[in-house]
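Annex B. Sample input.
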Amino acid sequence: MKTIALTNLGCSKNVVDGETIVSYLSSCGFKIIDELDKADIILINTCTFIQEATEEAINSIIEAARQKKEGACKTLVVSGCFSERYREKIKNEFPEVDLWIGIHNWPQELNRYFKAKGTISIQRKLSEPVGTQYIKISDGCSHRCTYCIIPSIRGAFKSRSSDSIVQEAAWLCEQGVQEIILVSQDTSFYGRDTGTSLTKLLEVLIEKTGFHWIRMMYLHPSYIDDSLLKIVASEKRICSYFDIPMQHIAEPLLKKMKRVPSTSKELYRLVERIRLSVPDSTIRTSFILGFPGETNGHFQKLLSFIEWARLDKVGVFPFSPEEGTAAYTMRPLPRTSTTLKRCEIVMDLQKEISREICESHIGSDKEVIIDRISDNPEYAYECRTQGDAPEIDGRVYLKNGNFSVGSFADVRIIDASDYDLFAKSINKLPS
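Annex B, continued. Sample output.
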């Protein structure tokens, strides 16, 4: 039996795509393994959202080509956004790649190449830790933000049916998953193309599944309505976690980006609405710095917003001009050194805010999910609260206890750093 190993690049949506593709190949008769150097087939599932992602895809292909030359690999397959976007342009530069597959018709391309027909299933190879898993609820995007290439690659927004999502969720429950994370290019837009809504999907998931936590990520600021805030506030199993890429606060830049809402007043009001409706909410956002036309005045407005909002989590990205987007030829561009300095200033400011927020939790009791056994001998486990998404947010380092990965624990926060919390278990022993 031939073996296949997966290298997954990019976002959580790509994680689901890669797992689905290798599970499809498993249904064709191939065996999935983790070791690239022992696999007959290497699949690289790529991203190309920004230049760094494109470079990572190219470097991964080069490394896999080396594995093909020196290891067990006989077949190299490249999938995902990089393949969809560039395969016709660069396939001659990578003769080691045996098959480039696109976004939309990859089952047919695999069938033709391997001469074997598989089935697309909700049952897929799950990434570790199994206790937390992503569910992709749509594909594509119908917004036309001027900096983003995704609509050109993946097409218009298309919601999955509620039934198919619930079926996948039910299967994940059977596998012992405790936390699901709903992901999409625009999760809050879910169902608006099919006559339903994200709130209605959440209602069904609460009714028909037993997940301890349901988390949402990638919420567009325009579609966080009162019904969504109400269900998050009233349902303790839905994490009161709002991941909202705002991109900037200066109105001239929001308009050039074709962001909606395009006024700073609406973004200020959004933060107020969330905190009024869901007092224990965690708000995470990201900003693009160095967008064409960004002035020091625009940057100062952003700093003022960050100081006012005191958001729990903030990420910043230097503008990456992507060929094929409207922003690619926009001018003037701030100097690279200026952009990087602005990124540093924002993160220094946010570090102070984050430290104060983290220290405010000292002495409080939290429920955490056990992600993994800690590599640090001073701590037993690495965990997360409802206010922390995996990989991108801070961690809770738990000193003591006897828990299995994927389970939940009650802890007391005893110390804090800039982004992380430190805790001891307060779980009562059974009598």
